[in-house]
Design goal:
alpha/beta, Rossmann fold, globular
Length: 118
């Protein structure tokens, strides 16, 4: 699956995804760091990439309706340290087939996973 990671996520998550065979691009690798959300999201959409972020600007499911984009994964942890982010994503990757998340709006929290499908 093609994935883009926002600049607010650790590189270890990109490594985890790539180790599972996903095609992963990161915002810093593409020199998009510091660019507006619109520019970053447009790049993810143009490339057909599932977009992983912690940015609450992507939290409104009415704006980002499932089926209107390649997919958004919003990670919302109470204490989003680098270690906790990496561990939580690792847990999800061990139990979920994320390839089924195309065009979905997904929220990962400390103990829940919510998937809104088109």
């Amino acid at each position: 699956m093609k994935i883009k990671l926002d600049e607010n996520l650790p590189d270890e998550i990109a490594n985890q995804l790539a180790a599972r065979g996903h095609d992963v691009h990161t915002v810093p690798q593409e020199s998009l760091s510091g660019r507006t959300d619109d520019v970053v999201f447009a790049a993810a959409c143009a490339e057909g990439r599932l977009f992983f972020t912690q940015d609450l600007d992507f939290s409104d499911v009415r704006v980002f309706r499932p089926g209107t984009h390649p997919g958004i994964v919003l990670i919302r942890l109470k204490e989003p340290s680098r270690r906790k982010l990496v561990l939580r994503v690792q847990q999800i990757l061990q139990s979920e087939d994320i390839t089924s998340w195309a065009k979905c709006f997904v929220v990962i929290s400390d103990h829940k996973l919510r998937i809104r499908r088109p």
